[in-house]
Amino acid sequence: xxxxxxxxxxxxxxxxxxxxxxxxxxxxxxxxxxxxxxxxxxxxxxxxxxxxxxxxxxxxxxxxxxxxxxxxxxxxxxxxxxxxxxxxxxxxxxxxxxxxxxxxxxxxxxxxxxx
Amino acid sequence: xxxxxxxxxxxxxxxxxxxxxxxxxxxxxxxxxxxxxxxxxxxxxxxxxxxxxxxxxxxxxxxxxxxxxxxxxxxxxxxxxxxxxxxxxxxxxxxxxxxxxxxxxxxxxxxxxx
Lengths: 115, 114
Fold this sequence. Notes:
Number of strands of chain B: 11
Number of helices of chain B: 0
Number of helices of chain A: 0
Distance between the termini of chain A: 38 Å
Largest sheet of chain A: 6 strands, mixed
Structural class of chain B: mainly beta
Radius of gyration of chain B: 13 Å
Order of helices and strands of chain B: EEEEEEEEEEE
Strand content of chain A: over 45%
Distance between the termini of chain B: 37 Å
Oligomer: heterodimer
């Protein structure tokens, strides 16, 4: 049972344009969401997070939007740069009820930004 | 501040053997989690330790075990290795357990079972 889904395995965009990566979740107990970026042979690097009490969080070129009613979140990268080419993972955490450091990850979306 | 350190980086083992992987968290971080990454299954949660206690466990067989020491360093052990255990094993540390904090990952240990 895949509780966090990234339905697009890959995405290709032109440098300077917007990249939009999507993520859906099924468990309404999730209340904290994170995006990680991963290069080959490296561990995931934290990008940005959002708590369920917010619907938007922005950090530089990265903005995460959360739609709780649709159980959907998205990561916007504007403008996209070739160095952004990597695999992006969406992750969710149920922080209530003592559910501790467990993160549920999506399958990842490979982003390619073309010069 | 040094990041999360995992050793070894690469490991080749034979079916039936056992293996121990090590993780040193970021200084001051008390929560350590382990994940398995495979091409078909993505990143899957193995277990989490906080103050030397296992606080959460994923859906993996009992062959997968772990522990945490008083200095927060953690080890995971896989016994009776199977070909399907070949994966990238990632360790992540957090300053507290639960709560809205991100986990910081190490570079992983690439385990190949032959």
